[in-house]
Design brief:
2 copies of one chain form a homodimer. The first copy, chain A, is mainly α and 185 residues long. Helices cover 70% and strands 0% of the residues of chain A. Chain A binds a DNA duplex (30 and 30 nucleotides) through helix 3.
DNA sequence: GTTGCAATGCAACAACAAGTTGCGATAGAA
DNA sequence: TTCTATCGCAACTTGTTGTTGCATTGCAAC
């Protein structure tokens, strides 16, 4: 039999949050089983409930901790190159188990529902800078609403992944990039 | 006290399915409570489980029965008019409680997940006829993939409603229509 | 009208997961 | 070594899905 760990403090925190992410990934939903998280974290269920009032708060904290990773702003040198990197990132996110759980769930809690808008807002702001730089380089004229253009480029990718249920080809991604580039003339 | 109904046959079926839809609407999720359906249908929980092996099958049957309503194909006389009607229909669906439950839930069962692709496929086919008619009228030249154009028009509406969390203005709808019309030249 | 059967109601039950509680055990610092 | 906050643990409550056995009742055939 394995010994109970009885570890404490920050290590336990990190283990719990990482375990929660793992469970979301392996189950593909935000409605995870707390017992499973406790098992993966090597921690008793009570310890989790001493830190988080309920499951939704645990999930929220886990996702927020995970989202601390800085949103990368591509810099491939050209507008097309930057947009391509964005579009590929969106595809891999939307196809991933964690991404699908976060982005296609109608969450039970308002806090979790709030997560989606802020998630995209952050990324739209980052992606819009790619357009700003293209303008500075003289590749195109400044658009009225850069973030809207990004939104219109990303929407078909998300839609196809979550609704139409067709896998997303490179050609489909290229179409979205082309449409944005065309809109900038 | 109210008397137990003891009604039978098709009436009971209809009551159960309509009650299920009501509960989905009032709860905004596909994870409805069977007891609540029984209450609304004026039927014992056992009666429901005698017809449907489990909750997911009940939800599936309720949605399929509801979806029997024919998908209307607009005929406003002009391409723009038809597209506008489509786009308004999509908005009202995506904003409705039933629509949100169906289209933004990561369902528990594969059958319910299958529902989304067929839902959209049906509507894409219907909407594509609007483009066909426009071609016949000589309003535009025949596109390579009409359904793809519809998909690209609808995607931003769905995306904004379910992800960005911003309410969808008439102007936003008009932009989507304009983009499709522009793509047909 | 009477009879018989299938459909329904009903209450109790099992299984499972969220969340709680009281107490005993232990790590880590004083 | 001692003290205390943290952790493990087992047992519990609550809510929901799904099941079961039996009593009731609607309805059709006779």
């Amino acid at each position: 039999m394995t010994e109970p760990s009885h570890r404490r403090g920050k290590v336990v925190d990190d283990n719990i949050l990482r375990a929660a992410i793992s469970v979301i990934e392996e189950s593909g939903t935000l409605l995870i089983k707390v017992d499973r998280v406790a098992e993966l974290a090597g921690v008793n269920k009570t310890t989790i409930y001493r830190r988080f009032p309920n499951r939704d708060d645990l999930v929220l904290a886990a996702i927020l901790a995970q989202a601390e990773t800085v949103v990368p702003i591509p810099d491939a040198g050209s507008l097309r190159g930057d947009l391509w990197e964005i579009v590929v990132m969106v595809r891999s996110t939307v196809m991933s188990s964690l991404g699908r759980a976060l982005l296609s769930a109608s969450a039970a809690s308002p806090d979790l529902d709030q997560l989606r808008p802020t998630y995209w807002q952050t990324r739209f702001e980052a992606a819009a800078k790619v357009i700003d730089r293209a303008v500075e380089r003289g590749e195109c004229s400044p658009p009225a609403d850069p973030q809207l253009l990004i939104e219109l480029m990303v929407a078909p990718i998300h839609f196809r992944a979550t609704q139409v249920g067709v896998d997303i080809s490179d050609e489909f991604l290229a179409v979205q990039v082309d449409r944005l580039v065309a809109a900038l003339r």
